[in-house]
């Protein structure tokens, strides 16, 4: 059944994607197979005594450790080792405070997504990034400072000022780099929020290269912890990406998959690119 939600971001143009030449997706999957990420078993993620509806109403689902470092890495275009270094649960100086030693939450994912904006573009020392995050956390008095709506309104300026120095600005300008502020704001626009500013859904940026800015990037894939236990799903029908790609691996043609799941062919192709890293 097609979702009644509005997906305005889905209509964004491919022309501004800026990720370089896109690989052509063959109509059928070649014989070689690639392991897929394993997602939490629902019974392991939520105790039997908990009501999912109640969890969602209280927004507890957004704090559940649904993701491994590897899964967050896949959703943010980072390496798993980078995500692990940023999110050590027992490290008080961690850039992102992990939900638990067992995994990362959706709010953790959103924070890593924001940090990925500067990681992809600027050679900023990790210690400077850590200082900036700690500064914003202290100023905003927030458990998840980079995921808070207040970060968009007040925190970006604090964050950028803590990150940048005169030499960095001059060097970036000489290289023609987009500013840190522009990058962070572009990544923040990929977060859909409730009326009170709480982050509800993330349209992930899972691939980039130098000079990349996600302005105009299509939003075929979305992550919502209240849908499919936080697995990446396609915005058109909310069918999980891995379910669609399993059909492709089984030898089904893109057109047949699109018809079976009531999806557009570009959405199916994007699911394949995401899952297979094409």
UniProtKB/TrEMBL annotation:
Span list, region Disordered: 17-43
Protein name listed in UniProt: DUF433 domain-containing protein
């Amino acid at each position: 059944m097609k979702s009644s939600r509005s997906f305005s971001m889905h209509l964004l143009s491919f022309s501004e994607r800026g990720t370089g030449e896109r690989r052509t997706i063959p109509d059928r999957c070649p014989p070689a197979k690639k392991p897929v990420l394993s997602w939490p078993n629902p019974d392991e993620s939520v105790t039997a005594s908990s009501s999912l509806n109640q969890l969602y109403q209280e927004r507890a689902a957004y704090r559940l450790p649904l993701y491994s470092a590897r899964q967050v890495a896949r959703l943010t275009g980072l390496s798993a080792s980078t995500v692990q270094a940023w999110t050590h649960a027992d490290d008080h100086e961690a850039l992102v405070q992990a939900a638990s030693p067992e995994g990362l939450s959706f709010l953790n994912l959103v924070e890593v997504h924001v940090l990925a904006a500067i990681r992809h573009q600027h050679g900023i020392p990790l210690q400077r990034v850590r200082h900036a995050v700690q500064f914003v956390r202290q100023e905003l008095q927030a458990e998840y400072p980079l995921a808070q709506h207040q970060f968009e309104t007040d925190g970006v300026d604090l964050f950028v000022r803590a990150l940048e120095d005169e030499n960095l600005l001059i060097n970036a300008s000489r290289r023609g780099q987009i500013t840190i502020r522009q990058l962070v704001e572009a990544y923040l626009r990929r977060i859909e929020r409730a009326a009170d500013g709480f982050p509800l859904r993330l349209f992930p940026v899972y691939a980039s290269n130098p000079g990349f800015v996600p302005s105009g990037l299509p939003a075929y894939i979305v992550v919502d912890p209240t849908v499919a236990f936080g697995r990446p799903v396609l915005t058109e029908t909310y069918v999980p990406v891995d379910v669609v790609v399993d059909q492709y691996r089984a030898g089904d043609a893109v057109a047949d998959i699109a018809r079976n799941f009531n999806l557009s062919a570009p959405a199916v192709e994007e699911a394949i690119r995401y899952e297979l890293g094409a």
